[in-house]
Amino acid sequence: MSRVWRVGILTLSDRGARGEREDLSGPAIREVLATGPYRVERYDVIPDERDRIASTLIAWADSGELDLILTTGGTGVAPRDVAPEATRDVIDREVPGMAEAMRWASLQKTPHAMISRAVVGIRGAVLVVNLPGSPKAARENLEVLLPALPHAMEKIQGDPSECGQG
Fold this sequence. Notes:
Elements: E1 5-12, H1 14-17, H2 25-33, E2 38-46, H3 50-62, E3 68-72, H4 83-90, E4 93-94, H5 96-107, E5 120-123, E6 126-131, H6 135-145, H7 149-156
């Protein structure tokens, strides 16, 4: 069965939201997704504001129009980096293995990966993934998750089949 997964890309950037900086991470994510069974249904650039991020995640996840939401930006330790807090505010459950896999793979390339606070979690039947803000890191982190994304989303949406069979 060939399913197409519906995706929202949410770039978190104060300067990008004000039109002072071009979003390069959102398009980089879109390029990675173009190689697989994904269709970008929603895209926006909003400021690094916890309440605004949370309300957007809620609206998108609860719309019934998406299977996957990818945020980019706001995962570090700067004062305005609040993507993990906003994500935790709205998810029902975390999927720590996915966030750990991204950090581990990134750590093979840069010691700065250890300051990533990215979160992956589930709201309703939607997987929410925090990706870094740089285009290169967003692309690399998403590529780490690609092999597991379809299976994760199938399970989140109630696939009753046994895991690891065959």
